[in-house]
Structures
1.
Amino acid sequence: MSTAAPEPKANMGQPIPRYDAVAKVTGKAEYASDVALVNPAYAYLVTSSIAKGRIDRFDLAAAKQVRGVIDIVTHENAEKLKAAKLFGSGGYAATTIQPLQSAEIAQAGQIVAVVVAETFEAARQAAHAVKVNYTAAMPTATFDSPGTTSAPAKGQLAQFKDDPKVGDFAKAFGEAEVKVSAAYETPPQHHNPMELFATSCVWYGDSLTVYEPSQYVHGLKNGVAEQLDIDPDKVRVINAYVGGAFGSKGSLTPRTAIIASIAKRLGRPVKLVASRAQGFTIATYRAETRHEVQIGASRNGKLTALRHEGWEISSRPDPYAVGGTKTTTRLYDCPNIASKVSIVRADRNTPGFMRSPPEVPYMFALESAMDEMAVALNMDPIELRRLNDTTKEPIGGKPYTSRSLMECYDAAAKAFGWNKRTPQPKSTTEGDWLIGYGCATTCYPTQMAPAAARVRLQRDGRVRVEIAGQEIGNGAYTVIGQAAAEKLGVPVEKVSVFIGDSDLPPAPVAGGSNSTASTCSTVIMVCEQVRQKLFKALMPGESLVDKAKETVGMGQTPVTQAASSDRPFDLESAFDALGVSVVEEYGEWKPEGAPMDSFRAMHKGQMRMVGGSEMKDKIAYAFGAEFVEVRINKWTHEIRVPRLVGAFAAGHIMNPRTARSQLMGGLIWGMSSALHEATEIDERYARYVNDNLADYLVPVNADVPSVEVILLSEQDDHINPAGVKGIGELGNVGTNAAICNAIFHATGQRLRKLPIRLEQLEI
Ligand code: MOS
């Protein structure tokens, strides 16, 4: 590497193959439960068949007879653990329902015993032989069940400071020339990642190593340390790969501390792989929601009034809610807006994040109602969005950092062939099939969080990047490698990326679509430190950074601009001048507007995410437009989706190949959400019925003949040094509404309750 000039944009933005592709397709990639342990014991969970009540006694005689059983842990003999604090209240935990601490049962599927045996099979057999006698009380299952309590979300959780509102909704709606009032519902859904909820714990003296798929190794480390009441620096969490998570592995679940304490008591490694069904109740899920939306407009289509009220189910003890009116009240220009979110408590496990919170349920309601308004106005639904497009959000008047929503509509409409659509519902048929076209807006807040990284550059050009990010399918290894390669001017093949280990410099949760922006911004900054160090050895007294650039604060300079203002210099000579063969730098980055305690919190695994609508003087979102064609058989009512087309604008795209995969996955998941997925509840017992992948429906290849992703270029100089808006959760936000809007176009029937089943169609 004698030529030292970085090749700007040689790496960032290129569709290079995944860094981890070969490891994954050859089976070399090691997931948490693949890690070979020395003389492990195997744990199997016993979970509650009742949703409310108490355990009277256990009959363990038969279970203890199973050959190979080592121990059976229940609340009668389990270690007492410290209470877990909820993620949404500044803690780490997904739930405060802590099993094995008392005889009380707060949810169906709560862990009531853990059988430990010499083999997985013995543990499983014995677990099935555990008999539990309960005194059951009548549980409350869901909305409309007797015993629910409802209260405003405002004030219950830190994130709900207020319900966005502006102007006088009631008056404006009363006077509106055209009105839409409608109620919408979304079902409970479970993430069902391919990789099950596994945890292995190994103690070395008083140090604990946890192998567990996690979206947040630093959070998990600190959370489990808190529950076990030990020094967090005695805990290490390792997971090089995560086999799907979608939010379900973002916070601490009760199983980790339980398995850790059993491993300690046994003095041997313990490995748990929970079953598919247990995953429905020992982790989080998306709870069912209800919505009322009212929109008022003038005859020419200008919005004059908007009201969005949402209700969400949570558990008895925990006030979890996604609360998406932050987005739906800010998307379109409108002078009079009211909103409110309420949390409805039932005897259920605590819900949590599920891609893409909070937008999926709330945007379904708003974007369906917008389509209903377009019908009421006899206006093209794209034109209605165009007429009410805005560069400033209407609640606080803050400008969007960039917003390419209508460009997305135009690109997607063209690719889709929207101009072939005849507006009249039920106007297009082909043989026995009714054909409908529908579209909807998709969007997701651009968020960032503090992170730290260590970068080592060798004289031979090899680079090692260390940052405790997580590879959850998001392409983290790949884009971090690209960022370092570009900034240091080396080929990406020379970069080794180390993530997924809490001994590495802390990075935020791989959630809220903040990962790429946060980790790449950090890595770019630390690579700059490496370059500065070398350059200063070569040219003492000078700095690489141009004077002009110094006046622009970090957080405002997009990297494309920074890279081009970098002065090239000879790295080999710089190494010679410095008299070393390796330069290593560590640095901590935080986004503009991050609170004072950001770095301290980061080291404690506490999130300080900023962005979206929460910034002081601006608002940052990624946008897209999603179009679908549905075909409905007029005899069988079978619903097919032959085409999905999405156009997206999300700032700088680090890697079009991994980005396309993410967005395709999102579009397909959105279709799945509209037509397939729902967790069915037996309301008598507050239990999930279809807790397996045979009955919990997900699409197969035959359900998705064609998915087209269009990536629009967008430069945003006001978000972060990488110029990146998140895309992980952008793809599946608009799809539910787009499909319902297409079904209306095909049939003339408006369906407001997801998922759409063919028996709902009355054609
Ligand atoms: Mo995402 S649901 O924030 O992991």
Note: The mean pLDDT is 94.
2.
Amino acid sequence: MTAENLETLLASIDLSQPAPQEEPLRQYYFLKKCRLHVQKEAEKLGRPLTACVTTFGCQMNARDSEKLSGILEQAGYVLSDSEEADFDIYNTCTVRDNADQRVYGRLGRLNGLKKKNPHMKVALCGCMMQEPGTIEKIRKSYRFVDLIFGTHNIFKFAELLNAVFEQDGMIVDIWQGTDRIVEDLPVERKYAFKSGINIMFGCNNFCSYCIVPYVRGRERSRDPKDILREIKQLAADGVVEVMLLGQNVNSYGKNLEQPVTFAELLSEVVKIEGIRRVRFMTSHPKDLSDDLIRVMASSDKICRHLHLPLQSGSTRILRAMNRRYTKEQYLALVDRIRNAIPDIALTTDIIVGFPGETPEDVDETIDVIRRVGFDNAFTFIYSKRTGTPAASMQNQVPEELVRTGFDRVLKTVQETARQQVKRLSGRTMEALVEEVNEHDASLVTGRLSNNTLVHFPGDPSLIGQIVPVKLEEYKGFYFLGRRAEETKQDAAAHRQSGEP
Ligand code: SAH
Ligand code: SF4
Ligand code: F3S
């Protein structure tokens, strides 16, 4: 929805009437109410109100944060990166225990801030809130929290925010599940030139270690028409790169009334004018079709990168993980992908220390890493998640053994990734410039189609542009480079001055 359409819609809402039942209209009604509350409080304080959204989880969590930001901004808050804000919201993750611990640690600090600024409101949402036990713990030990909601009712944020202004005490609204998808709510993108797009929600795979199906609920796909409409709108807004998001994009569309495959969706997305790059996350190896490989090979717009979580290279462990592929099937899939798309970068996720894992199983994982040669791999220590089948397995691996295995895997990943990425040295490739380099303001950071980063001299005016960059120096996982045109000019300048 454009800003103008939003204002027209809000102007047409009559707050003297009861809130409408249908969505998303109901949320726009409450958004209008929130505006009045925010305005009143800002007048009282004599300054604009600020809000800070903190993301703890994956790309889907980050996309949800953009939806929260959209509502906050439309309600009249000025978005800020500082937690010393009038409204602080933590969008939590619970995939591993350390994600939970980070939230609790930072909540302690928020309590201190809230004592200094009693107007401050604190909200918690996201995956961790869906876990049994969390709410009780927060009620007991973090009583200063004003609002808690979960993953299934995030579309109700405007309504819940309004309730924070109108009710006293902690507001808790957690749904156990939903089959609803509410379209057309405001979103505030973090980047002007690229955006994530949810194509599906939830997960049906129940890998035996994983909490996600419990906290995100069953798989639901968005209607392809809604997805394509959203991407066309993004393209009109100046977005050049989109990332299609789902826990398992390869099973997209199976549960729609008129089933559509992910390959079919993707081939429609690449037709959208203005979109120059398409990425997607995450692919489950068991569902990756030959059709998808064909579509990927057929379009230059589809980035030369595939994240294909392996989890383990041992067929025995894969079975216990309920991953539904074997070591050999994974390797054969990689061969099919590499044959069709030779320049593709493959990245992966690996878990070390799953119950029953022996050093020999770790050897199998290392064997796959060596044979595939991943461009990057995220290696995780197995974390026991209450309620998952793996948590009650008897053969949990002792910490020391897990450490040794983890270090071996990490070392292999680093060696192979280095070799893999280094092969690009000296080539000129297109990079989408994303930001000014954090450490050196004379450099900008760009992302190659294959997801590798390159830092090169440039200024902020380049942000959002796709430019050719020569990859000059490999620095371990990233490159230092130079804009290709500049290199030509430099060469010309050198010739004129008689230098070699
Ligand atoms: N849907 C995606 C993964 C989402 S979670 C997929 O299936 O690929 C991201 C990664 O976290 C997983 O790939 C896995 O490697 C890791 N992970 C999930 N649960 C974990 C656990 N209990 N302990 C350690 N790592 C875990
Ligand atoms: Fe978790 Fe497996 Fe679903 Fe990924 S596919 S979210 S690892 S259950
Ligand atoms: Fe974490 Fe939820 Fe994503 S548990 S990894 S934020 S789906």
Note: Residues 203, 205-207, 210, 212-213, 247-248, 284 surround iron/sulfur cluster (ligand 2) (CB under 6 Å).
